[in-house]
Amino acid sequence: MLKIKSYVKVKSIAEAYELNQKKTALVLGGMVWLKMGNRNISTAIDLSGLGLDTVQETDDEFVIGCMTPLRELEINERLNEYAHGAVRESLRHIVGVQFRNCATIGGSIWGRYGFSDVLTMFLAMDTWVELYDAGRIPLTEFVNRKKDNDILVNIIVRKQPLFVCYMSQRNSKTDFPVLTCTASLIGEEARTVIGARPARAVVVEDKESILKNFKHMTNKQRREAIEKFAEYAAEHVTTAGNMRASAEYRTLLVKVLIRRTWEAVGGMKNEY
């Protein structure tokens, strides 16, 4: 059972940050995951009155407030046009519309959950987080950062030429994913993200530069590189077993989803 001693709807991020310095204080997101746990909270901090529930677009970036519902990202035309529909695809299997109307991107990103479709998707773009105290840092750095008492204010997606494809494997439509995968070309950079391993999502390091210059390869070269990289990733991405799948099955899925997503990014299959 979740027990809250006091509740404060803050009037500024500075007030929220000050309240959050107590170890037993907690910032509320959409409350869809938090309410399922057992925890004693001295001060529940509500950011819903600060106008941080919108997606704003500039010439250079998308600025997404931490309290923006996942549903808003799912239906945002400009963001999905930029991401070739991959953002929508990464969200549409998360329980249901009512759930996605409550769950927030801030809660999803801050939690860095091992099952997170959202984290797998946003790691595959040039995404930064804006923290009240620490300022802007890349999501690739934030994902491995130790949790502290800072406040996540915005998620920023910097606009770069982008080709991206998101896929997941599930045992049933609205269940947690067995494995998630996003492949992307951010400018000239090839990036692959694997999530629900069942640990938090990771960017697969291409230490052998197998996908380097992928954008300029012929289709034959791309297919050969994809096959080689899929085998490489399966050897280097750590997986584990749980009630949804074994480690061996997840390792097999790493190869399958990497092939499919990169074929889509390469234009060899119209899947994004």
TrEMBL record:
The keyword Flavoprotein applies. One of its GO terms (molecular function) is FAD binding. SMART domains: CO_deh_flav_C. Residues 1-162 form the FAD-binding PCMH-type domain. It holds the Pfam family CO_deh_flav_C. Keywords: FAD, Flavoprotein, Oxidoreductase. InterPro entries: CO_DH_flav_C (IPR005107), CO_DH_flav_C_dom_sf (IPR036683), Diverse_Substr_Oxidored (IPR051312), FAD-bd_PCMH (IPR016166), FAD-bd_PCMH-like_sf (IPR036318), FAD-bd_PCMH_sub2 (IPR016169), Mopterin_DH_FAD-bd (IPR002346). PANTHER family: XANTHINE DEHYDROGENASE SUBUNIT C-RELATED. This is Putative oxidoreductase. It comes from Blautia obeum. The lineage of its organism: Bacteria, Bacillati, Bacillota, Clostridia, Lachnospirales.
